[in-house]
Amino acid sequence: MLHCFAISNLTAPERRIVEGYKVGIHLYPHSVFLHFQKDIPTACGATLITDQSIITSANCLYEVNIRNGKITAYFGASVPINANVKRQVELFSIHRRFNAETGKFNLGIAYLNKAVPLKNEIQKIPISVKLPKTNEALHTTGWGKDVPGKLPDYSDLRHLKATKQRTISPRQCQNITKSRMTPAFWCTISINGHHYHGDDGNGLVNSENQLIGVVSFMVNDITVYSDVMREQLWIYTTVMDLFKKMCTKRKMLY
Fold it and tell me: Peptidase S1 domain spans which residues (predicted)?
């Protein structure tokens, strides 16, 4: 936990999981549900990386930024409305190289108004230092729609779902998506479950329970992620910068 008097080490289209399988939050305790209160309420996913900061996609935060919205993060519940731990996003930062047209560096860090209690259902996740191999099985989680066509569709009533994905090579991804793939991206195809609207920002995780990337967009059934492994310095620096800004902000209130 970071305190204002002490600094510790930082140990496009449709996107919502359909045809995945329901899971308990205790199996994926790093998963975070983000609810955006603005003119049209929306939702995104995120991943807990410290007890007071989360990583998500830049496009989620960018939309709130331009509409001056409010973000609530839900922790420790398979169905968000049942969460006993909720936090407000106090500050956030979007990757300086984020490109909304290409989806490149689609990463953002959000700093919470208060640290969350780490327990069985709420856990931070480390960032992987090992690149995944082609055809490696990975997984993502998200709050997909339970009943297709059901109206009204309240995102905070959805149950957490998981999807299994398989990595493909940059060349294969480029051939299918017709988009230029760089080391800033990872691509997967579905083994079980597809992403849909609302899954932006969810984490791509390996079998060792380490974070690989963040859901950015989908093209022709291919999910494209922003890489986090090569951005660890940016992540660490951004978390510390937000921490310092929050301390300064709070000192001004006293």
Answer: 17-240
